[in-house]
């Protein structure tokens, strides 16, 4: 539990300070390390809320929320086929 | 370490988790679309002290680090001087264009006032490898900022204000992928469309007949000259009737701390 709280703090601070790709990479570690790592949605939501623009020409304004959701679902199904994980 | 059991029946659980994830995504997207002000203001209120603390720590670290490494200090000084030289060169180019344009306009527009109002803004967050290519600025409606205002670094246009909140605003860089801007090319003043290619780079597709050389200035078609960048390269092929003009902003967005905002003309 303590490890998870520590990772959550790093993750939330990271989503404000670090580049978005790095925050998502740390989230991936959390996804494989803990059950139901819903914190990843918070990361995507913070990044979209801070940097996303509703009238973006090329990307949807909630790109990172969608990416984090896809990562979450992908890891759920991936875990079924892994022999062991962290 | 968790081991996957051979005969585990986790199918139902997996589907339930996936459904729950989809529901969370939908709720967050709806929240983002239906309460953007609430989301932005709340996040900015949390982010501001974090970014201030980050700036403080980075500044302190840089000072301590400089004490211990003389080589690094010299390298930094060299980099600063190189940056200053690059800025001075571009400023000189701008001044040259100003001079000629001023001479031309004096006879036509004598006594006409441009009335340009500039507002200084601190960059709270930079694109920083984000796919959005946005700048987060610490000025908002309280500072008379409106959507469509131009973001400048010196006389070079960086972007346009796209979203404004009480005490902060978001600007999209003109060099964002797919952003189209109307510009004038070099001395010929030929109008063309510049397409953003990300990270301060642009491309223009123009007929081969348009005379362009490296170093030509690209600017906005306004009364007050606002520059876009300088031509870096011109690509031509024998078979094509068009040429590709590649140019970029002469300022490094990642090194900037302050920008100016000019009301949309």
Question: Could you explain the architecture of this structure?
Answer:
The complex is a heterodimer of chains A (about 90) and B (about 260). By secondary structure, chain A is an all-alpha fold. Chain A has one domain. In chain A, about 70% of the residues lie in helices and about 0% in strands. In chain A, α1 runs antiparallel to α2 (about 20-35), α2 runs parallel beside α4 (about 65-80) and α3 (about 40-50) runs antiparallel to α4 (about 65-80). With about 260 residues, chain B is an alpha+beta fold. Chain B has two domains: about 20-70, no CATH class; about 115-265, Thrombin, subunit H. Chain B has three helices and 13 strands. Chain B has helices at about 10-35, 35-70, 70-110; strands spanning about 1-5, 120-125, 135, 150-155, 155-165, 170-175, 180-185, 190-195, 200-205, 215-220, 225-235, 240-250, 260. The longest helix of chain B has about 40 residues, at about 70-110. The radius of gyration of chain B is 24 Å and the shape is globular. The N and C termini of chain B lie far apart (about 60 Å). The model of chain B has no long low-confidence stretch (mean pLDDT about 80). The interface of A and B includes residues 77 and 84 of A. β1 of chain A pairs antiparallel with β1 of chain B.
């Amino acid at each position: 539990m303590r490890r998870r709280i520590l990772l959550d703090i790093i993750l939330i601070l990271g989503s404000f300070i670090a580049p978005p790709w790095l925050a998502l990479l740390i989230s991936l570690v959390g996804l494989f390390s803990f059950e139901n790592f819903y914190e990843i949605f918070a990361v995507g939501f913070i990044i979209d809320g801070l940097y996303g623009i509703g009238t973006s020409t090329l990307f949807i304004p909630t790109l990172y929320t969608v990416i984090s959701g896809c990562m979450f679902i992908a890891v759920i199904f991936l875990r079924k086929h892994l022999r062991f994980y962290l | 370490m968790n081991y996957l059991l051979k005969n585990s029946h986790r199918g139902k659980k997996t589907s339930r988790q996936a459904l729950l994830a989809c529901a969370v995504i939908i709720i967050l997207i709806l929240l983002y679309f239906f309460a953007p002000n609430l989301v932005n203001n709340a996040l900015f209120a949390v982010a501001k002290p974090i970014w201030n603390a980050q700036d403080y720590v980075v500044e302190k670290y840089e000072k301590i680090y400089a004490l211990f490494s003389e080589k690094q200090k010299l390298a930094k000084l060299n980099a600063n001087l190189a940056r200053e030289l690059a800025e001075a060169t571009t400023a000189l180019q701008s001044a040259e264009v100003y001079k000629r344009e001023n001479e031309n306009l004096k006879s036509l527009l004598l006594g006409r006032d441009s009335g340009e109002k500039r507002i200084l803004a601190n960059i709270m967050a930079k694109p920083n490898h984000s796919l959005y290519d946005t700048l987060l600025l610490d000025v908002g409606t309280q500072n008379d900022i409106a959507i469509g205002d131009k973001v400048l670094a010196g006389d070079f246009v960086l972007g346009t204000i796209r979203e404004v909140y009480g005490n902060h605003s978001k600007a999209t860089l003109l060099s964002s992928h797919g952003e189209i801007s109307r510009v004038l090319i070099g001395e010929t003043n030929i109008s063309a469309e510049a397409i953003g290619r990300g990270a301060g780079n642009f491309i223009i597709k123009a007929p081969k007949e348009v005379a362009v050389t490296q170093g030509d200035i690209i600017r906005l078609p306004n009364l007050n000259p606002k520059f876009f960048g300088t031509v870096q390269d011109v690509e031509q092929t024998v078979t094509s009737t068009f040429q590709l003009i590649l140019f970029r902003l002469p300022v490094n967005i990642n090194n900037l701390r302050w920008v100016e905002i000019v009301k949309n003309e």
